[in-house]
Amino acid sequence: xxxxxxxxxxxxxxxxxxxGEKLSKVTKVTVCFGKMVQVVPxxxxxxxxxxxADTVAGDAELDIEVLPLKIRCNTCNxxxxxxxxxxxxxxxxxxxxxxxxxxxxxxxxxxxx
Length: 113
Ligand SMILES: [Zn+2]
Known about the structure:
It contains two helices and six strands. By secondary structure, the protein is an alpha+beta fold. It has a single domain, classed as hypothetical protein PF0899 fold (2-Layer Sandwich).
């Protein structure tokens, strides 16, 4: 399961940060996913709960932010946010585009004490 592997990776990061900052308890974790990562928040939450059980973040609140897809056109330089996975510039129709955001996957913040 995609979400479980991601959750385990992110929980390892949370544990490293908590150890580095000498936190005895993590109270809140905010994670960011780009839309293209296609994480299902409910499944991720379940996977996260399983991965943090018996760790310093076992009772942490989880916040998930989904970042929209943004593409930049290499022909006319327009940045657009297509609703679907439509990798064509809506301004000029070029398919020579680069993905500006939507592939992110990271821990945005960790709160603890
Ligand atoms: Zn264009």
